[in-house]
Amino acid sequence: MSDSVKYLLDEEHLPKHWYNINADLPEPLAPVLHPGTKQPITPDDLAPIFPRAVIEQEMSTEREIEIPEPVRDVYRQWRPSPLFRARRLEKALDTPARIYYKYEGVSPAGSHKPNTAIPQAFYNKEEGVKRITTETGAGQWGSSLSLAGSMFGLEILVYMVKVSFNHKPYRRAFMETFGAQCIASPSDTTEAGRAVLAEHPDSTGSLGIAISEAVEAAVQRDDTKYALGSVLNHVLLHQTVTGLEAIEQLQMADDYPDLVIGCTGGGSNFAGLAFPFLHQKLRDDLKTEFIAVEPSACPTLTKGQFAYDFGDTAHLTPLVKMYTLGSGFVPPGFHAGGLRYHGMAPQISHLARLGMISPRSYNQLECFDAGIRFAKAEGILPAPEANHAVRAAIHEAEKCRETGESKAILFNLCGHGHFDMQAYMDYKAGKLKDLQYDEGEAAMALAGLPSGC
């Protein structure tokens, strides 16, 4: 077994295809439904929102989908990303476990999100689109699409969840530096935003609300499309470059993971790492376990209901079958803003329903503690979202210490925390609390799930 700390691939090893897990699901996904007719949606139904190439990928069951050369050319700026063996963390934990992390914070935007922002911008440019609207929670997705828009000459409009807009001014500055317009959501620029403000003037916002505003703004102009940074099939597809690279890098290390871990909000970074390994498990009947980690304050997979629901608060989007807390649910304003989403990717929800992945939730304070322990050992300060994966990896490594097992643990360090220093300052000052989601509010939101599906 290799004694290296980092495993680097040359650009020639950059994947040429994305992996589509729809080709290998033991049972097919439930169809996406039109919100009006409740019938399976058609490509024409999605055409006002997405470019044709994205729609084709969303509905595809092909196992491999080619990555266009212009996309690979941009990927080469930071991909393949490094795989690290966390030897100093292993020593600090006094564990026999072998801990690896795929570090996506090396991208220009500091997270995994450009893996899908770049192709989405490319496909929109190819179709003659001039402007893209989107939402963002913590700002990683908004930053990434702003970067991609700059590279392909597109105008970008970002609705940023208000609590994160206020928490993370430097994320907003990043977007504006690349030419994007960033608006705090809910806003008075859309009917969806004005409706929320009329009922809740002090609303902290949610991804569901921001999605409503972005979709509404997109359909108002013929030269505009909408882009999503997580949840949908095509987004998770684009992220699989992460896992495909990690498979090769672990071969360099002469190792293979017993556990694959990622944080989950909408599901993109977990899927990006896990799906290629899930393919190998399904193909070769391997024993690898998959752990999807979410915040206890927004426990979609662990406490939600598996049902058809809207992806947004104003019910402008198609209906997808997923684990959900209800499209009207507004999570409390914890610092891992990228994980504050009421639903979960249909593919991940489906796999959880089949028992192929194991959901888990942690509180905010224990995740920040884990992130700081990791940073002191490895020298990288994780984003608050990534701290959830770090917490699970440390938990599993400590279990190995108790049992004496030497398991290989792989997790996705999906972004750095350099734009999140206020959160760390608040944590060190004792200002952060373990926020709990409102079970009554979630029950009310779930009571409003669409009927007749």
Here the CATH topology of the domain at 6-13 and 68-110 and 234-447 equals: Rossmann fold
Please write the CATH class name of the domain at 6-13 and 68-110 and 234-447.
Alpha Beta
Strand content: 15-25%
* CATH architectural category of the domain at 6-13 and 68-110 and 234-447: 3-Layer(aba) Sandwich
Strand neighbour order, sheet with most strands: 1-4-5-15-10-11-14
Rg, nearest Å: 20 Å
Tell me the span between the first and last alpha carbons: 52 Å
Based on secondary structure, the structural category is alpha/beta
Instruction: Report the sheet with the most strands, covering strand number, pairing sense and barrel closure.
Output: 7 strands, mixed
Helical residues, percent: 40-55%
Number of helix segments? 19
Low confidence ranges: none
pLDDT average, as an integer?
95
Number of strands: 15
Bulk shape: globular
